[in-house]
Specification:
By secondary structure, the protein is mainly alpha-helical. It has one domain: P1 Nuclease. The protein contains twelve helices and five strands. Helix 8 packs across helix 12. Bound molecules: adenine and zinc ion (2 copies).
Length: 287
């Protein structure tokens, strides 16, 4: 009995000392986007995804959508591929100006990564043994399509997309970036869906078929010469970052009900667009 109690307390203190740290949208944001996308796949894409997913995913893309966050440490080169830093206060994005890493290497940003992994996946079924690991390409693409839709993943350089802006979420100390990765989603799930992610997903899917049905075709479409259009998604993100995420926020702001209820519609929209566009991109890749 005492043995169990001691172990329980040891594990509890470990959990409290090392809370789940997530980057990108949190686990839930990424899972939501992938779970919106997968049922929208055409037959060719559904079959390719089933073939490429690792066995442990059990043909559920939602289970592996955060894989790219867990491999930042074993693949340090991939860290810069999750975001884009844009010039402070400009509120726009240009690929040639902004898509680079901290060393100035061109194309090393989330938009460049989406183009790269899309191109790798286009070799599926063409090259009997492709030089690429197409399972990793699928997991990276599915994750980065989520990240590019998180407004603060296309944020200002000096605050690292809100990471250095300390705020309170209600009474809890956090930073603005984390509010957009996790807190708004978690609060919505707790308040409206009994902490059930599937309830939140169903509500977003309903909006896609009803409220937003006349816009979905525009979200999906892309220059006819291209398979995916990350520059459009990134431009929308920095615009939303300025209009909603950064707006009326400064160091040590207390963000509560007003911020939550005015920003939740933007979070819903970006999760929906991320899911719809991941499916549209995979459908074009594998058709
Ligand atoms: N690191 C630097 N800028 C970042 C951003 N916009 N999002 C996430 N991590 C970052
Ligand atoms: Zn990420
Ligand atoms: Zn993030």
């Amino acid at each position: 009995m005492e043995f169990c109690r001691t172990h329980f307390l040891a594990i509890l203190s470990l959990v409290l000392l090392f809370p789940r740290t997530t980057k990108g949208w949190g686990e839930d944001g990424h899972a939501i986007i992938c779970k919106i996308a997968q049922p929208r796949l055409n037959n060719a894409a559904a079959e390719a995804v089933q073939n490429l997913l690792p066995k442990y995913a059990e043909n559920d893309l939602g289970r592996v959508c955060s894989w790219a966050d867990h491999v930042k440490f074993i693949f340090p080169w991939s860290s810069a591929l999750h975001y884009i830093d844009t010039p402070d206060n400009l509120c726009n994005y240009q690929y040639t100006r902004d898509c680079k890493d901290e060393n100035g290497l061109k194309g090393r940003c989330v938009a460049g990564a989406i183009n790269n992994y899309t191109n790798q996946l286009l070799s599926y079924g063409r090259d009997s043994d492709s030089q690429y690991n197409l399972t990793q390409a699928l997991l990276f693409l599915s994750h980065f399509m989520g990240d590019i839709h998180q407004p603060l993943h296309v944020g200002f350089t000096s605050d690292r997309g809100g990471n250095t802006i300390d705020v309170h979420w209600y009474t809890r100390k956090t930073n603005l970036h984390h509010v957009w990765d996790d807190s708004i989603i978690e609060t919505a799930e707790q308040r409206f869906y009994d902490s059930d992610m599937d309830g939140f997903i169903d509500a977003i899917k309903k909006n896609i078929t009803k409220e937003w049905s006349d816009q979905v075709g525009d979200w999906e479409s892309c220059d006819y010469t291209k398979t995916t259009c990350p520059n459009i998604y990134a431009s929308e993100s920095i615009k939303a970052a300025c209009e909603w995420a950064y707006k009326d926020v400064s160091e040590n702001s207390v963000l509560g009900d007003d911020y939550f209820s005015s920003r939740l519609p933007t979070v819903n929209l970006r999760l929906a667009q991320g899911g719809v566009r991941l499916a549209a991109t995979l459908n074009r890749i594998f058709s």
